[in-house]
Design goal:
The structure is a homodimer. By secondary structure, chain A is mainly alpha-helical. Helix content of chain A is 44%, strand content 11%. The A-B interface holds A 13-19, 21-24, 27, 92-96, 98-100, 102-104, 106-107 and B 13-19, 21-24, 27, 92-96, 98-100, 102-104, 106-107. Chain B binds a DNA duplex through residues 1-2, 41-43, 53-60, 62-63, 75, 77-80. Chains A, B: InterPro entries: ArsR-like_HTH, HTH_ArsR_DNA-bd_dom, WH-like_DNA-bd_sf, WH_DNA-bd_sf.
DNA sequence: ATCAATAGTTCCGAATTTCCGAACTATGGA
DNA sequence: TCCATAGTTCGGAAATTCGGAACTATTGAT
């Protein structure tokens, strides 16, 4: 297994962020992660309510999020810990992530973000 | 030629906005349009400095921008007038467009946005 | 009215990207 | 060592994107 790539803060490209978050499934995963207290493992985030994302697709979603700079992943034993890089990111792109999550939140059909 | 489709404000989807603006060429076009005083025709926006976008690609870019709700296009004689819907959009998704344009603007290699 | 020029759209095929099942890899127990 | 668990990689079918060539709409000239 190749080591996971994480871009340095200054290498993060806005187009990659926007692209990553232009997929509602990915946003849902990211939003859960952003609001999560603990875990943040892949499997814990696989269930979107209306659909369970296949393993390989999920893995790819995490890869896109990771390589765009949105999240940090690290192996912890047999599972993978994921956490957002939102503090860093907000430094680089002020207000961006918040505006995006707010935009999605305003949409009907997202009753709880628990 | 099919009539041009413009989504109603309430039908605009954040994923469409993010997708449309996840392409640097499209952002460049949009930013020019947002900063433009007059024209806003396709051909006037085709020249990005480093490359001249082919007609059909350009037409497609405008279609993506239009159908995502970012711009309004209307025929005026032989040409097409395009204008941003940024005021409306900011009402629906507060701060979003500004944060995105700011994020792109901070990138090196975009010396002038004239 | 017809013709030519201009501005942009549509069509369609090649190249690229996405999606996901199946096979594989890494780690931690029993 | 062998098994179970969590996730990654492979590979090919399906969907998307890109852009040249052909087409359409409008204006102006003859």
């Amino acid at each position: 297994m190749r080591p996971l790539f994480h871009p340095a803060l200054e290498d993060i490209k806005p187009e990659a962020i926007l692209y990553a978050l232009s997929d509602p499934e990915r946003v849902a995963i990211y939003a859960k992660l952003a609001g999560a207290s603990g875990s943040g493992t892949c499997s814990a985030l696989a269930d979107l309510g209306d659909r369970v994302i296949p393993k390989s697709s999920l893995s790819n979603h995490f890869k896109v999020l990771r390589e765009s700079g949105l999240i940090m992943s690290e192996r912890q034993g047999v599972e993978m810990r994921n956490q957002t890089r939102c503090t860093e990111l907000d430094e680089r792109f002020p207000g961006l992530i918040k505006a995006i999550l707010t935009a999605y939140g305003q949409l009907p059909g997202q009753p709880k973000t628990d």
